[in-house]
Amino acid sequence: MFRSPRRAAAIVLLMVLPLVLAACSDTGGKKAAEAAAGGGNTVAAGHANTPHYTIAMITHAAPGDTFWDKIRNGATAAAAKDNITLKYSSDPDPTKQAQLIDDAVNSHVNGIAVTDPNPGALCPTIQKAKQAGIPIVMFNAGYSNYQSCGGMEYFGQDEAIAGVAAGKRLAAAGKKNVLCVLQAQGQAQLEARCAGVKEGLGSEGTMSKLYVNGVDNSAVLSSLSAELTRNTKIDAVITLGAQFALIAIQALNQAHSSAKLYTFDTSAEEIAKIKSGAVQWAVDQQPYLQGYESVDGLWLYLTNGNIIGGGQVVLTGPSFVDASNVDAVAKYAAAGNR
Amino acid sequence: MAQTTEAPVAPPPRADERVGRKSPLARMLARPEAGAIAGAIVIYIFFFIIAPPFRNASSFSSVLYVTSTYGLMATPVALLMIGGEFDLSAGVAVTSSSLCASLFSYEFTTNAWVGVLVALVLSLFIGFINGWIVVKTGIPSFLVTLGTFFMLQGLNIALTQTITNQVSSPDISTLQGFNSARQVFSASWTIGGVNIRTSVVYWIVFVIIATWILLRTHIGNWIFSVGGNPASARAVGVPVGRMKIGLFMAVGFMAWFTGMHTLFLFNTIQSGQGIGNEFVYIIAAVVGGCLLTGGYGSAVGAAIGALIFGMVNQGIVYAGWNPDWFQFFVGALLLGAILLNTYIRRRAEASI
Predict the structure, then answer these.
(1) Which end of chain A is more exposed for a tag (fewer CB within 10 A), N or C?
(2) Which CATH number fits the domain that encloses residue B244?
(3) With a threshold of 0.90, does the pTM exceed it?
(4) Is residue B17 part of a domain?
(5) Nearest CA in chain B to A18
């Protein structure tokens, strides 16, 4: 024990300061990233001289979920180009998300881009926004009934279709026992993906589910390695988010499992793992495109009355990132856009 | 119960029961962690019977690993609860610490160890602020740390987003010093096919240190007295305020340690991590015999409590039960452990 807390603090400070000043890293870090990216890493596409609009983007993103960074990056890029002020907000709780939509209506925004993971809870609020005369674009979630909810355009993938595509590809690779890892319980989209994988596998193989605590990396690692130890017949693991694929790599090692690893969605780190072969492929729904098109679609409607898709959904996925195209995608992933 | 059935035919001259000798069993059962140990044994046997993979040594090392990630934090949280306070910010404080280390060393391209030290300062500071507000204002720590819980949660996400333009920290595995830091915080080695992570060893060491402090030092006495009756503790000269701030800083220290383990194991950290774990730490301490009112409990008990939680979490997966029911089973088994714990403690108290 130090005699006085002040002296202890001073000693700690004295210890830390010279280290900070002297101990720079020659490898990695931001300097290396900037050197690799050649300075700028944002997409710039000119600047429109159309009237200034304010658009609200309201999603069901859980705090800290990396997937939504790419949606937001796309939306920000489109807003910068289109002379638009983007107001982004999110809440995974449907009642709170509905409140955010109400808030946007009350602040008289010029357009709303919204995700709808829970039509029962959100549809009435979205319809109210439409009745207030605000154009609505929907994206990412709400594929099946976006029009009845009041959306004029939809950008995204159908999770079931994406799941089926993944399942078929797994069946083609000869996988018999597929483990679908869900990072949360009670989310319709995640369930739809696993159900799609099961459908896609058909009679070729079986699908089992594992729920993990997505907000605790150590818990994900332990649960997954436990399941791989229990069921040694598992020959394919498919995670429903890029960050979970990275943890699954460690879980496979820990459980001495020879199962192959697949995932939904992408991130820079995960794409590097596709390159190295630790992850076989990723189902890509192009979130950057969803964010970008939602804002750009509203801008086209506000400035020129256009409707992208002409009343039909615009599918942004599923596409696959695998060994054949990973190099092309990797450089955009490093900038946080893929 | 036992006393009522024994009809005293000829009562022998009784010695003062406060200094009388008790049987070793009675003394053991009177320890705070006795009920938890019984609960842990029951749950171990339960899963040993119904879940074949649970019997392997390698599976149990996986149980021990997940236990250690909770147990590291449950140890100071138990000390804090014995000292009469709560820390609801403990779960996200772990994430704050790993984000701080990661972002600092990445943004300034420093040696990874620099970030580690900066994060230590931050974590101790968070603990200090929690304790200082509680001591200076007298507001219940439940409310103060609920406030800091939300503030840290917001700071984690907002600062990460502002600095990196994404919600997870960048990969720092190529920084100098990363490998040596990983060796210190998150190494693992294989003995006879069993994978053992250093966090398990650290956890046991910290439990021993905490037990030694509680039972063998005057600081330990002070912790019990501060939690049991702060007014009389103050009256006999215990520095109540400094003790409480120190306990909050101990939680901060372990949040740093746990955060470093997570960071160097996973290279990147999502800013929304850790939410909800504060309750796991408190549950572990309570299952292990800490009273919610303070003044009573043990570090070993909290360790056993964490082990129960770890066994239940992993055991359900090993047993292959319907995953939809996972949370229900976790809750039911924990409630069962607490009931057994309470039952044994009542029996022990009645037999003294």
Answers:
(1) N
(2) 1.10.3470
(3) no
(4) no
(5) B114
